[in-house]
Amino acid sequence: MAARQGQPGFDHVDTWIFDLDNTLYPATSELFTQVESRINDYVAKFLKLERAEAFRVQKQYFIEHGTTLRGLMDCHDMDPDPFLEYVHDVDLSAFSPCPTLDAALGRLAGRKIIFTNATAPYARQIMARLGVGDHFEAVFDISDAGYLPKPAPEVYDRLVEQHDIDPKRSVLIDDLPRNLAPAAALGMTTVWMRTGLPWGQEGADGDFIHHIIEDLPAWLDTIAPRPKD
Q1: pTM of the model
Q2: Measured between alpha carbons, how far is residue 75 from residues 28, 49, 82 in Å?
Q3: N- or C-end of the chain: fewer Cβ atoms within 10 A?
Q4: Which top CATH class is 2-25+97-223?
Q5: What is the reported pLDDT for 7?
Q6: Spatial distance between the Cα atoms of 195 and 23, rounded to a whole number of angstroms
Q7: Contact (Cβ atoms closer than 8 angstroms) between residue 178 and residue 204
């Protein structure tokens, strides 16, 4: 873990907010590769495009609208629910339960919330697969956000209000730097889960990133208090 000079630690924290994809589980599992492929399938069928052109549109909407879903809704008046059901119907055998993550979350004092641009059922399946579902009190998903994705600032306001969060006593951990900027603006401590993936670099030099990690279970294992002998 790297903490940028002068940045806050974690003694003040009472709420831990975790992104889901490529954060709660490692990007090396390539689970999100499955999701991306199914997004491409859906875009191609919905817009009647060849896969290569569908991929271009998919990435254009991701950049311009925050998610491909939001782009399809804004530009094509698409119903989000069939899309979300289709793209999250994936094979979760890419990873196994993570005892280190489970133990560290169990020792980590404070509330724990998932904050995702995906759906709550998908998030709960992943948490169950990892063996960590019991540690999280809530999932704030894309429907809770009114289908408006991170990093739209109003989504963070809605999260804070819905779950009675004091931003100055909370942490957000996310693999996309751009998603950390609105959190820092609210007063949250931010942790960038650096994956090395090309779409996870935008904003990587921003001063709104307080800490940088590359292995969530290992990092939590180092900061979560251990029982005294």
Answers
A1: 0.91
A2: 33, 15, 17
A3: C
A4: alpha beta
A5: 64
A6: 9
A7: no
